[in-house]
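Because discrete structure vocabularies remain unfamiliar, we first show an illustrative case, written as a sequence plus integers encoding its fold.
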Amino acid sequence: MNNNWWSNSNTLATLFWFRSVLIIGQVITSLLAKYTFAITFDASGVNTVIAILIGINIATWLRSKQHDEVATLEIFLQLLVDLVALSALFYFAGGAANPFTSMYLLPLAVGSILLPQLWLLMLASLSVLAYAYLMWFHPEQHSQHNHQAFNLHLIGMWVSFVLSAGVIALFVVNMRSALQHKDQQLVAAREQAMKDEKLVSLGTLAASTAHEMGTPLATIQLICSDLRQDHISQKQIEVLTTQVQRCKQALTDMSAVTGSVEHDQMQDIVMFEPFLTHLVRDWQQGRPQLECALTVKNNSSAGIVAPTILAKALINLLDNAADASPQKISVMVECNAHEAHMVIQDQGQGIADELINEIGTKPYSSKPDGIGLGAFLAHEIIQKMGGKVNLSNHHAGGVVTSITLPLRSVDA
């Protein structure tokens, strides 16, 4: 069923109680009509219909206790049973002249909650046809009610019913769809608020970490300088010094941009193609054993905002691809005047289908020593810039990371 907020058991239980009220109302009405108002009608026919309806209702109650999926067709058939039962009751008790013919609207009201619009329109159409049948083909209609004024009254009742059924089938369903859409927007807003809270916490943690690591790194750098003067393991010392400098630069950048994309948006817009080329080449220097094939198509003169924090996001995604495929990755970029489409493809083992949609929505890492913040932060940064990140498994193996980024005119 399309309405996820109705569970299977609740749906059938709702139909059971609706039909129970309908049966009780019909029993009371029949008793009053026969014994209080002495109205003549086919009591045996009415009692047969009520008995059949009670049996169907008991079956519905037993069905509601099961945990199988309830299809839309089953709900439609349940309401169709009520429609046919009402038609039979009216047929045996006055036809279209029965004062309770407006009860045809009850299955439609329930259907407006439980059924998609197409199915509800089918149910409404059948209701109109059933009502019309009672007007023109009831056996007692012409013998008892052949007066022209009364026939006009019946036609007016039928037109009123058609209008009411149309309002329920169209207007009410559209209102329900609008409310469901608003609910979905509220859920998405709550999820985004939770993500923003995580980012704020991470930003605070990043600033604190940058402050706490500054002094130890400065001490390590001083020791490296002393060791270099002793000419001990010069090659290893150079590597250690380089890595310490890299850590300090990363901490400096993190302190400058932590917590806000807007901070970087005050900078000048830089041309995207040179920015990306320079970024990839600099990043590859830290992985000399990796072959990175960079292809840029349709070079655009458009620019990108927030280059510093965007560089951090793209480097995180490049690092993930390189960790999965240490020998070779490919980066393909295609630009137009308004957007840049970037594809990072690795040759790794791919990601399990049940996990691929979760990456970026919460911290996740498949590496034993990873903490999973890189992909999460990259997704959030790019989304806040108005872009999109999508991950998919390639049929030949590996992961394809598709990135869409908005571009602006450099003169803007």
In short: The beta strands are 270-271, 291-297, 303-304, 328-335, 339-346, 388-393, 399-406. DSSP finds twelve helices and seven strands in the chain.
